[in-house]
Amino acid sequence: MLASANPKKVAELSATFLGLGITAPDGSPVELLPRPDSVADVIEDADSFVGNARLKAAALALATAEVAIADDSGLTVDALDGAPGVYSARYAGEGASDDANLQKLLSELDRLADLADPAHPVSRAAQFRCAIVLRWPDGFELCALGSVAGRICEQPAGSAGFGYDPVFVPDLGDGRTFAQMSPEEKQSISHRGEALRNLAAQLGH
Ligand code: IMP
Question: If you take atom 11 of ligand 1, which residue's CA is the nearest one?
């Protein structure tokens, strides 16, 4: 059971499991279930991505007695001492839109650039990070991490993806932002893709 009620996340993860060859012990496809409405959202108040993924997976496994999977992810920016980090979804305030969060990030970097010595320009280095926790009802857990390094560009570009994708240019790419890539291209280098591949390896795939 996935610690998200979002059908898109359920479909994406089911497809990824199939693609990575992750199956049930008898070889049949893993049947991934969305979190039922009866299980409330947990308060994600840990200070790390792993901590928040553990909170979500543990609460779901306890409430449903199913094997639970939870992910938590976000953006860390070097010049901002790792912000927005675990606050990525609400950087511009509780319930803020993706666009408001992204505009706040650009204006924070502009503010630092205005204050900086021109001989030492502000670094725009950043990383997307993802933690995935798989938890059994008896408390056994597997944890997988993934990250992707890149830089925050000056102007948003592209309309695919979500969140900070329009301002993130991965170092391993060709200069395009994540929002200018197909979902498959993004998944092949993204933090979430790497975490899922690490999880698959721990499951013997
Ligand atoms: P979640 O843990 O997957 O819900 O992600 C938390 C927040 O981190 C999102 O609301 C986005 O702002 C940001 N984020 C995480 N992963 C990505 C990504 O792949 N692209 C863009 N933004 C992301």
Answer: 163
Cα distances (Å, whole numbers) of residue 193 to 39, 181, 183, 189: 27, 14, 11, 7
What average pLDDT does the chain have?
93
Tens-place pLDDT, residues 146-192: 999 999 999 999 999 899 999 999 999 999 999 999 988 998 999 99
The active-site residue, picked from 26, 72, 117, 174, is 72
Distances (CA, A) of 44 to 100, 130, 188: 21, 15, 28
Distance of alpha carbon 86 from the chain centroid: 10
**Residues 181-200, buried b or exposed e (16+ Cβ, 10 A)?**
beeebbbebbbbbbbbbbbb
Among the ranges given (27-31, 95-99, 171-175), the one the predictor scored with the smallest mean pLDDT: 27-31
CATH number of 7-202: 3.90.950.10
Looking at residue 28, the DSSP 8-state letter turns out to be P
Task: Name the DSSP class of 162.
Answer: S
192 three-class SS: helix
pLDDT (0 to 100) of residue 56: 96
Ligand 1 contact via 75 beta carbon (within 6 Å): yes
